[in-house]
Structure formats: C-alpha cells, structure tokens
Design brief:
mainly alpha, Rna Polymerase Sigma Factor, Chain: A, Arc Repressor Mutant, subunit A, 56% helix
Length: 235
C-alpha cells in the first residue's frame, strides 16, 4: 500500500512523514508524537473551536483528543492519513462535549436587583459593525444542529473536500452534502437581515444587487454571507 503524505496540499513538511512519525512514536520515540502535534495543532484547534464555539471547551476537547490519540496510536491501521485520523478524534471529542452541554444546559444566574440610586458603570460603546456581524454569524453557526454544524465547519470553514469530511465524520459523502445544504439554508435565514443591509452591497445600473456583504474574518466563516440559493446547493 502506498504511504500517504499527511501534510496539507502545498505544505509538505521536511523530514519524516506523519505516518513515519506515528510509527516512531509507537516504537518508543519520545519526540515523535510531539512533532505531529506541532505540525497540526493550529488546524485541530480551529476545528474544535468552530465546532464548539467556546474556547475553554475547545481546548479541553483538543487535549482529550490528543491524549486519546497518543494512547491509541498502536491501533492506527494506516487506512487514512494521520491528519484525517487526528481530525476524526478531535471532531468526535468536540461533538461529545457539545451533546453533553446540550443535555445539561446551564441556567444563567438571576440579575441581582440594585437600588435605583446605586452608581452604575457606564454602558459599553456599541460594537463596530464588523464585530457585530461576526457575532451574528457565530450565533447562526452555533444554532445549527450538531451534525450540520460539524459538516459546515469542515467543508465551508476549514476547506475540506466533501470526501475527506465524510471520512472524518464516518458518514457517506451524500450525507455530508445534505447536512451542508440544510445547514447553509438555516444560516441563510438567520443571516437574512445582514444581507438586507446596504453597507457593503453592490448594485448594477438598474438598481439590482450584484454583491453580498462579506463576513469579517473574526467570525471564522469566510466569503460572502450564505444566501438561500447557496443553502439549496448540494455541492
């Protein structure tokens, strides 16, 4: 079987492949697994953060996943790239935390009443438009069902091919396409007020809108805001 190079396209690292490093780790090399983590931790962290939407929970999910991968490396059969295997473990750990959080939601503490004459801190300044847009986009992503969110994160945010996302999530490619389509449609509805704004829209001479507001980079979702038509696209 031909060994798969595990780095992302155009970024092959010098030295041993991820698969070679994983074998070295299994054989007792104390530095090999740390090198794999160093190569891919940023991307693993990004997947966990966008899937969960909470920095502390994402950090815990990545830590749990890497500990699991470290312990179970000997069972890696090499039927996928090491990065795909790592992402599957990270995504599963993230989804487990999401489902536990949804089954045990936290209840916000009631606002403690204060006398009317109690000095109050000044109200914070209104958020900048881009920041406000980013919050709405993140909220729309967080409101998606867990399975749809995971598919959107992998395909639309992290840029994985549908086939690789299907391998990571352990489902058929058609399932990934369906989840992405339904997730885009739900997000399009949630983001409709942003698309209706005139701020960044472009119009042709007849007054028809030819462009859409773009999502600020801080939101984690790049490119134009999804439209209902994009939501129906099955890719």
């Amino acid at each position: 079987m031909t060994e798969q190079r595990d780095a992302y396209p155009g970024t092959d690292p010098p030295g041993p492949s991820d698969a070679e490093l994983l074998r070295a780790h299994v054989d007792g090399d104390p530095e090999a697994f740390g090198e794999i983590v160093r190569r891919h931790r940023d991307r693993l962290w990004a997947v966990a953060l966008r899937t969960i939407g909470d920095r502390e929970e994402a950090a815990d999910a990545v830590q749990d996943a890497l500990l699991s991968a470290h312990r179970s490396a000997a069972r890696f059969r090499g039927d996928s790239a090491v990065t795909t295997w790592l992402h599957r473990i990270v995504v599963n750990a993230s989804l487990d935390r999401l489902r536990r959080r949804q089954s045990h939601p936290t209840v916000p503490l009631p606002d403690s009443g204060r006398a009317d004459d109690t000095p109050r801190a000044p109200e914070p300044a209104a958020p900048a438009p881009d920041h406000d847009t980013a919050l709405v986009v993140r909220a729309a992503l967080a409101d998606l069902p867990v399975d749809q969110r995971a598919a959107i994160v992998l395909v639309d945010i992290q840029g994985y091919a549908v086939a690789e996302a299907a391998t990571i999530l352990g489902v058929a490619e058609g399932t990934i396409k369906s989840r992405c389509a339904r997730g885009r449609a739900r997000m399009a509805l949630a983001l409709a007020p942003l698309r209706a704004g005139d701020g960044d829209d472009r119009h042709d001479a007849a007054g028809n809108r030819t462009g859409a507001r773009r999502v600020p980079s801080g939101s984690g979702v790049t490119g134009p805001l999804p439209s209902a038509a994009e939501g129906r696209d099955d890719r």
